[in-house]
Design brief:
Elements: E1 5-10, H1 14-23, E2 29-35, H2 39-49, E3 53-55, H3 58-63, E4 69-72, H4 79-88, E5 92-96, H5 103-116, E6 120-123, H6 130-141, E7 147-155, H7 175-191, E8 194-203, E9 209-218, E10 223-229, E11 238-242, E12 245-249, E13 258-265, E14 268-275, H8 284-296, H9 306-323, H10 328-332
Family: Belongs to the Gfo/Idh/MocA family.
Keywords: Oxidoreductase
InterPro entries: Gfo/Idh/MocA-like_OxRdtase_N (IPR000683), Gfo/Idh/MocA_domain (IPR050984), GFO_IDH_MocA-like_dom (IPR055170), NAD(P)-bd_dom_sf (IPR036291)
């Protein structure tokens, strides 16, 4: 591997552009190549973000010998095939969330990565934010007592046409996979593995969920209450509570720069705020972790390990079963 981590980006949509911008804020990273199914789209993306090469097919990117790792930036239903393609080409992958459409697909990706000894990670960028890492340190320190409860929401009013990715079942639409993955992943990050889940949803006219609420029981006994919505602009906050107080990640918790710690003892109450700026648009932090892992010869990140990605995909499958949300990939997997 060269000194710089040589990135490829598969896809040229909004999230791909955000990640390409973040690579400029990532020490020791270079955008080596981009791929699209359109030569013009790939060339325009490469020119805008300074990629050394552009490819008119995903296969060409997978075959590019001068790439260390590929960021998969396509819609959810394409993640499995795109990741498998790149792994077969000998490339590590950072796969945008939701990681896949279901757990069986995730198992195939991780099995191939382990067989080939290649890096793979779910792109849950929130876990790597400085403010979130500090919140985790505070919770683990015991300052708020034993953490036993998480409350988290993520919602916005999606004023989109029915064919838009967020509402289109053929593109993996729905509140759960697009937004609910955040409260779910963060609840597990702070309280540990999920033991059981109960969910309810409001389904929309396109057949996907437009609001979902779910409660989690964690293996350590803690409980989480989570919700996601494409109908309401919710507070989008996350609170971790223990016997001595609580830590709150404020508005747009998924990329917040501010947390507060409140301690309560009888009638006494004290609060402090902590501001921890993110780098650029925030995506650089997960890219930095990928680079660290690659240089260390790791095939998974301890912050977003394979086992947890698999477990959370399984929880999402259970929630979808409870609310009656099915996709084409489920039929393909029997």
């Amino acid at each position: 591997m060269s000194q710089a981590i040589r990135w490829g980006i598969l896809g040229t949509g909004k999230i791909a552009k955000a990640f390409a911008s973040a690579l400029k804020d990532t020490p020791g990273a270079e955008l080596a190549a981009v791929a699209s199914r359109s030569a013009d789209s790939a060339a325009a993306f490469a020119a805008e973000f300074g990629a050394a090469r552009s490819h008119a097919s995903y296969q060409a990117l997978a075959d590019d010998a001068d790439i260390d790792v590929v960021y998969i930036a396509t819609p959810h239903p394409m993640h499995h095939d795109n990741a498998m393609l790149c792994l077969r080409g000998g490339k590590g992958v950072l796969v945008e969330k939701s990681f896949t459409m279901n757990r069986p697909q995730a198992e195939e990706i991780i099995a191939l990565a382990r067989q080939k000894k290649l890096f793979v990670m779910e792109a849950m960028w929130t876990r790597f934010m400085p403010a979130v890492q500090e919140a985790k340190r505070i919770v683990d320190s015991g300052e708020i007592g034993r953490a036993v409860q998480v409350n988290a929401d993520f919602g916005f009013a999606a004023d989109f046409a029915p064919e838009h990715r967020v509402l289109n079942p053929e593109l993996g639409g729905g509140a759960l996979l697009d937004l609910g993955i955040y409260p779910l992943s963060m609840a597990a990050f702070f309280l540990g593995a999920v033991e059981s889940v109960q969910a309810q949803a409001q389904m929309g006219p396109t057949g996907v969920d437009v609001q979902t609420a779910f409660s989690l029981r964690h293996e350590g006994g803690g409980l989480s209450a989570c919700s996601c919505s494409l109908l309401a602009r919710t507070p989008t906050e996350l609170t971790i509570s223990g016997s001595k107080g609580f830590v709150r990640l404020h508005d747009r918790f998924h990329n917040t720069e501010e947390i507060s710690v409140t301690l309560v003892s009888g009638a006494a109450r004290s609060s402090r705020s902590i501001v921890l700026p993110r780098s650029g648009n925030g995506y650089a932090h997960e890219a930095i972790e990928v680079g660290r892992c690659l240089r260390a010869g790791l095939i998974e990140s301890p912050i977003m390990p394979h086992a947890e990605t698999l477990a959370l995909m399984g929880v999402l499958d259970t929630i979808r079963e409870q609310i009656g949300l099915r996709y084409g990939a489920d039929r393909n997997d029997g």
